[in-house]
Design brief:
The complex is a heterodimer. In chain A, 29% of the residues lie in helices and 41% in strands. By secondary structure, chain A is an alpha+beta fold. Chain B is an alpha/beta fold. Chain B has three domains: 4-185, Thiamin diphosphate (ThDP)-binding fold, Pyr/PP domains (Rossmann fold), CATH 3.40.50; 199-366, TPP-binding domain (Rossmann fold, 3-Layer(aba) Sandwich); 382-552, Thiamin diphosphate (ThDP)-binding fold, Pyr/PP domains (Rossmann fold, 3-Layer(aba) Sandwich). Helices cover 39% and strands 16% of the residues of chain B. In chain B, the strands form four sheets. A six-stranded parallel β-sheet of chain B has the order 3-2-4-5-7-6, sandwiched between helices. The radius of gyration of chain B is 25 Å and the shape is globular. In chain B, 53% of the residues are buried. At the A-B interface, helix 1 and helix 2 of A face loops of B.
């Protein structure tokens, strides 16, 4: 493996037709790449265009090769590297369930305020926090919650977009 | 065009007609019966244009025959297969076509819509199975999508970098009635391959070409895929510059094989002069080739001192394995047309003095005569058999297909092609069993021409059942078997890499090929003595019908020159120096 392996965020615009996601992820695994996270949703309901965001580890060079392979797929109209370190903005959402009482419960609530997490469900023994932010921020929150009764995590995976006037 | 109401099965045939298809290869089955029924109606009705259907004996045969048809005629090859095993049998041919960029449209039947996903009889996830081995595929879910999908299928198969596509049609949709829209009103939503390259990039390339001292053209199947105009423009450009030209396996025939500027095929079994030229050049002009591993050898040591120009219609081919200096994305014919125009208007000149020196270096390499062999009197050398076949067929417009292995490499080395589309071989996938059904497809496209499948005795047995197809459809294909009783290329590698442990590469219990031919109603010829060879080849050519020619050859002959795995172009083995081959462990893991 190359030394310059980083987490790359790749955005792919596709025609929203049956099997298009299978095509994209099949190509990625078929050519020996890995997927750390994946998000998909239609972004243009009239033209039926979906946007797929994939986080994949690799050097810039290998990811550029992946991008040109993705662009070769017939229903893919555009693929681009929008990695945070370069020019992209990345956000993720997580739902985090804590089972705790007493001191730990209070501490988890205090920390959630620091992270500007929302409490969206609560019982006497549990919280569900909703947290938005960069993947790093969510990682940090989850790590802090581990000793405080972390029970379950659900994450959306990264969505990303380029900064400034640049358009895909 | 007026929109008309048709059944799904009628739409399939109507779309074929609208795309100029008059020939299909196929095999019927439960899930395609409605389409076969339409075929039957066509042959009895006078209103419709005839649709020739060639019944194969195995769906792999249909896919290779469609490839042979497409590779020789430049048209889209069409095959029709049923669900389940019908389509899984066709997968090898689809993959073969994808690897070599051959336009195919495969229509497969599927179980009726309401049974999809229930593990019904002869159901399989066809679009799932064929997704990675087609350029694109579709499962038709609504009769009113069918005509659009069929038109898109032909468009995608033949535009950009060509490739196979598949349309999976459930049986209920074949019966339903819907609106058929004509091809002229259908435009694919997003797929628009770029044909013309920017003039500035072409000019960058021409500047390199005009100042090059040790240039070489390295051309591939993309030239042939681009069409006859591309071939003519390539010839003009190569003659204009006076540079040496080498070709990949797939590109043979785009430049005349007997021309002095042609320095032979390059790569693992390429000529000494071609590989040395690639190794030592200062400018490489890659036209429609893809730096395949058979070509580059060890990538780190591939042509270390050259600037590289790469013309390719597929952007993902650029910098995939070898980084280039001037990437030109576009169709070969379009790019060469612009390049020649610009060369003339800007009055570019080549560096004549240096090119002359370069040629004298190349001529020194040529003197090695790296394809030489010693015929002797006793047994037929395989190279000699192909040389004689070439000499005795070169005066007529002959089409040659091959299977895969030693015979394929000897054919590429010793049969010289003067025209494109005459050499039909499975390069990327390397499919044993390809050559014979492919030859049938060629013969269908050119009923009056001589079509020869140069085969090995192991490969030919992989699709021998198609002899029945040849007889039924009166396709007088000649099978020229280079019979050394070994899977020769496997044996060659075992000899070089595995201390001559010939594990399962001897083909025991071979059939008597003469009797086998006769059993099908074809002609069989066996030759063992070198002095009978010419007479027997003539007999084969003159016979009006399919022939199996069993040419018994020297069992010990290997294909040379050879760049062993993991080695660079400058470390080629020539026939007389095999002793010094030391292949590293790293090289052994390569294929």
């Amino acid at each position: 493996m190359n030394d310059n392996v980083i987490k790359n965020t790749v955005s792919v615009l596709v025609d929203n037709e049956p099997g298009v996601l299978a095509r994209v992820i099949g190509l990625i695994s078929g050519r020996g790449y890995n997927i750390d996270s994946l998000t998909v949703a239609e972004v243009d309901a009239e033209k039926h265009i979906s946007r797929i965001t994939i986080v994949t580890p690799g050097s810039e060079e290998t990811v550029n090769k992946l991008i040109s392979q993705l662009e070769k797929l017939v229903p893919v109209s555009r693929a681009a590297n929008v990695t945070f370190e370069k020019k992209g903005i990345e956000r993720e959402m997580a739902l985090v369930k804590i089972l705790a009482t007493g001191e730990k419960r209070v501490e988890s609530m205090r920390l959630s305020e620091v992270f500007r997490a929302k409490i969206i469900d609560t019982t006497h023994d549990s919280f569900v926090f909703e947290l938005n932010g960069s993947p790093h921020k969510i990682d940090a929150f989850i790590n802090l919650m581990k000793p405080l009764g972390l029970s379950e995590v659900s994450r959306t995976g990264v969505v990303a977009i380029a900064r400034g006037t640049e358009k895909m | 065009m007026v929109n008309i109401q048709l059944s799904g099965a009628e739409m399939v045939l109507k779309a074929f007609e609208d795309h100029g298809v008059d020939t299909i290869f196929g095999y019927p089955g439960g899930a395609v019966l409605p389409i076969y029924d339409e075929l039957a109606k066509r042959t009895t009705s006078k209103d419709n244009k005839p649709m020739r259907h060639f019944l194969v004996r195995h769906e792999q045969g249909a896919s290779h025959a469609a490839e042979g048809y497409a590779r020789s005629s430049g048209k889209v090859g069409v095959l029709l297969v049923t669900s389940g095993p019908g389509v899984t049998n066709a997968v090898t041919g689809l993959t073969d076509a994808l690897m070599d960029s051959i336009p195919l449209v495969c229509i497969s039947g599927q179980v009726p819509s309401h049974l999809i996903g229930t593990d019904a009889f002869q159901e399989c996830d066809t679009v799932g199975i064929t997704r990675p081995c087609t350029k694109h595929n579709w499962l038709v879910k609504d009769i009113n999508d069918l005509s659009r999908i069929l038109h898109e299928a032909f468009y995608v198969a033949s535009n950009g970098r060509p490739g196979p596509v598949l349309v999976d049609i459930p049986k209920d949709i074949q019966f339903q009635i819907g609106t058929y829209i004509g091809p002229e009103t259908v435009k694919h939503k997003s797929y628009r391959p770029k044909l013309k390259a920017s003039i500035d990039t072409i000019d960058d390339a021409l500047q390199l070409i005009s100042s090059a001292e040790k240039p070489v053209f390295y051309t591939g199947g993309g030239v042939i895929n681009s069409g006859n105009a591309a071939v003519q423009l390539l010839r003009e450009f190569v003659r204009l510059t006076g540079f040496p030209i080498t070709s990949t396996l797939q590109g043979l025939g785009s430049f005349p094989g007997d021309d002095n500027q042609f320095i032979g095929m390059l790569g693992m079994h390429g000529t000494y002069e071609a590989n040395m030229t690639m190794n030592q050049c200062d400018l490489m002009i890659n036209i429609g080739a893809r730096f395949d591993d058979r070509i580059t050898g060890k990538v780190d040591e591939f042509s270390p001192n050259s600037k590289k120009i790469h013309i390719d219609i597929d952007p993902s081919s650029i910098n995939k394995t070898v980084n280039v200096d001037v990437p030109i994305i576009g169709d070969v014919a379009h790019v060469l047309e612009d390049a020649i125009k610009l060369w003339k208007t800007k009055v570019y000149k080549t560096n004549k003095a240096e090119i002359k020196n370069w040629w004298s270096t190349i001529d020194q390499w040529r003197k090695k005569d790296s394809l030489k062999f010693d015929q002797g009197k006793k047994t037929i050398k395989p190279q000699y058999a192909i040389q004689r076949l070439y000499e005795l067929t070169k005066d007529q417009d002959t089409f040659v297909t091959t299977e895969v292995g030693q015979h394929q490499m000897w054919a590429a080395q010793h049969y010289k092609f003067s025209k494109p589309n005459r050499w039909i071989t499975s390069g990327g996938l390397g499919t044993m069993g390809f050559g014979f059904p492919a030859a049938l497809g060629v013969q269908v496209a050119y009923p009056e021409k001589l079509v020869i499948d140069i085969a090995g005795e192991a490969s030919i047995l992989m699709c021998i059942q198609e002899m029945s197809t040849a007889i039924q459809h009166k396709l007088p294909v000649k099978i020229f078997i280079i019979n050394n009783q070994y899977m020769g290329m496997v044996r060659q590698w075992q000899e070089l890499l595995h201390d001559k442990r010939y594990s399962h590469s001897y083909t025991d219990s071979l059939p008597d090929f003469v009797k086998l031919a006769e059993a099908y109603g074809a002609k069989g010829i066996r030759v063992e003595d070198p002095k009978d060879l010419d007479k027997s080849i003539k007999e084969m050519i003159d016979y009006d019908g399919p022939v199996i020619f069993d040419c018994v050859v020297d069992q010990n002959e290997n294909v040379f020159p050879m760049i062993p795995s993991g080695k660079s172009h400058s470390e080629m083995l020539l026939g007389d120096e095999t002793e010094k081959s030391e292949i590293s462990d790293e090289g052994k893991v390569l294929v």
